[in-house]
Amino acid sequence: MPSAFRVILAMLLSIAPATALADSWAPFSNYRSVDATGRYYLVVKKGEGAPRDPGRGTPVTFELVERKPGSPPISEVRDQADFDRVIPNPEVRVRDGDTVLGRGKLDRCPLYTLISSTGLGFVGLDVRGYNFGDRLAQTDAAVVIVDRTGKVRHRKDLIDLFSDGELYKFLHTAGGVGWLGVGGGWIDERRREVVVVGSNYGRGEKPIPRLFRIVGLEKGDVRNGSEKEVVTVLAEANRGGLDFALELTAELKLKDAREHLPKLFDNEKLPLGTRLRAAVALAALGDPRGGKVMTEAALQETDDQEYAVRQLPIVLGDRAAPVLCEVVRRHGERCRLPARQAMARVSSEAAVPELIRLLDAKESCASQTFAAECLGNKGSASKAAVPSLIKLLQAESRTDWLLSTHQYAAIALGEIGPDAKDALPHLIRLAETNARDEWERVKAKQPKLRPDQFGGQKYSDDYFVDAICKIRQR
């Protein structure tokens, strides 16, 4: 693979997530979602008349279902999206023996669906695709309230929830307004209301304050809410809102919520993911009692492992460094990305010695590339790792799905800068070898090509050259 193409590919991969969040949408996948208690579930499938561009909105049919008492638990499933096609999942259906309470259609598939745990129905929040949330093109689908029979009771547009000034503060793209917080909100079963939580992503770099709105399920009336709604969820142990409320408690450091957290953390009847979120909320308020549970969850391959790995530094602080290395040692590529993101929150003083030990262990390709990436992220603070990174350059190169161990080592050495000058002879050797190999590949395809037509460069334009330039500071 020509090195120029590798660079382009890496750039495309690095911007893909941000693009997807803004205005690019994958093909629609049918799905089945389940309420927090496992009693009710929703089967959503693509309807007729869907536009070719999924961002333009996908009409859907839905079935609201109650699980048969005593039957096995129901799982959340969806079709598998594979680039530009969808592989159907036969489990996206109403299970035999369960009771269909209501059926219906929606012109736009909601971005989030909140299912009542007491059989009140469900609520759709925002729309999947472009929402064009302004006065000129109202979608009437910011909030859609559907009762247990499948009848749409109320529809609310963005301007019903927020003022023009509030809407202006949210992140805007060509496709609409990123107004909804990750998690969406929850249904307050006792008061028959839905609590909607605005995003904290704004137009600038700094987070914006969370906005809470409450919509009545029966009358559709809208009123302002506050952080007190979060505390209410915790005090009443509202299963449908616990996870999101605990995440908000940690984010906002809600001191009023502190008294409810130990009880939730200690409740072993709650799902592990909920208890982990309680541990993070406790740690955010200065109580690190959840360290053991978080560590065990990070090291075990479960659905909650990724969350535990990402949040480990909040609970353990710098003591997370050896655990993160052990996570990658045990689970490799599965945990490499969340572990790398978590290690960025660990101090260099704690992280660098552990990463050097992992690098020197000469284990899996995932372990070595993880260690090199993290060391590079620490910059000049990783200068003690230079001898180990040189050894990685000298060893036989191994390749993951994108780059080689040599390339990861070069990137790290370049980020360390002038303190990595001892690596220059090795980087120059690899740059020359890479340039020669690339010339041979080009010459094999174009036998008449002369070196001066190839560019006459001493080194190829790749990661090794970039590292050499950074170390030489030019």
Description:
The structure is a single chain. By secondary structure, this protein is of the alpha+beta class. The protein folds into 2 domains: 3-225, no CATH class; 347-471, no CATH class. It is 41% helix and 17% strand. The protein has 18 helices and 17 strands. The strands form 5 sheets. A 5-stranded antiparallel beta sheet has the order 4-1-2-3-7, with no helix packed on it. It has a 4-stranded antiparallel beta sheet with strand order 8-9-10-11. Helix 8 runs antiparallel to helix 9, helix 9 (305-316) packs antiparallel against helix 10 (320-331) and helix 14 runs antiparallel to helix 15 (405-416). The radius of gyration is 26 Å and the shape is globular. The two termini are 27 Å apart.
